[in-house]
Amino acid sequence: MGEISKHDCDELELKGEIRQDSTERGGRERGLELYEIYLGFKKEELEGKDVLDLGSGETEKFERELKEAGVSANVIPLNPDYSAGSFKNKLETTPGWQGKTVAASAQEMPFKEESFDRIFALYSVTVFSHPFLHPEEAKKWMSEIARVLKPGGEARLAPAAEGPENTLEVWRGEFGDLLLDLEKQGLKCKVELVKNKEIGLTGPSAVSGKEMGENNLCARIIIEKPK
């Protein structure tokens, strides 16, 4: 089964990988390298770009490491958890915090139309508001991504599905209708598989315990808005 099931989400939650009521991960954040691998881009491409990071995490590791790498980009982290006092205090005491965090949800972004060159979502909306579990919420955040993306801009989201055999599983699954709606609006959508061998993962899955094939891990969605 290509799409994330309710059972899969429950398993991840029990293992402490995700919580359905929060994006907090107890310090297990994904940095620049994993953004590049999972979402399929090079950091140099972001030079001078306006970048929206959906579900930016407890300490905004991606933004901080991008800055440390010498890439000058205007990164706007969006995180609904920032409205919580304890979460806000943690972030504000993080060394190098840029102070641009927006406390809002991806379903209702407080940005003008066509604001961003790049939009990234890694283990955020596609997990916490997956269309299998939250179909109406997924429609909202997908629509918002299309709205705030600049002409010529690109959004990259992952994982769209874990363990897919091919990209058609994503198109035929819960994401299919959302992507077709975007294409009707003139946007271009494609799905790419993220292979284990690209990330250096071998051995059994941390979730299922089953051996992972080198060509099988998850899929990413790429959305392009024509100029």
Protein traits:
Rossmann fold, disordered N terminus, globular, alpha/beta, six-stranded mixed sheet, single chain
Q: How is this fold's topology laid out?
A:
Blueprint (H helix, E strand, L loop, with lengths): L5 H9 L17 H8 L10 E5 L6 H8 L5 E5 L6 H8 L23 E7 L2 H4 L6 H14 E14 L5 H5 L3 H9 L3 E7 L1 H4 L18 E7 L3
What report would you give on this structure?
The chain is an alpha/beta fold and 227 residues long. The longest helix has 14 residues, at 135-148. The protein has helices at 6-14, 32-39, 61-68, 85-92, 125-128, 135-148, 168-172, 176-184, 196-199; strands at 50-54, 74-78, 116-122, 149-162, 188-194, 218-224. Residues 1-22 have low confidence and may be disordered. It is built from 9 helices and 6 strands; from the N terminus they run H-H-E-H-E-H-E-H-H-E-H-H-E-H-E. Strands 2-1-3-4-6-5 form a 6-stranded mixed sheet, sandwiched between helices. It is 30% helix and 20% strand. The radius of gyration is 17 Å and the shape is globular. It has one domain: Vaccinia Virus protein VP39 (Rossmann fold, 3-Layer(aba) Sandwich). The chain starts with 5 loop residues before the first helix and ends with a strand.
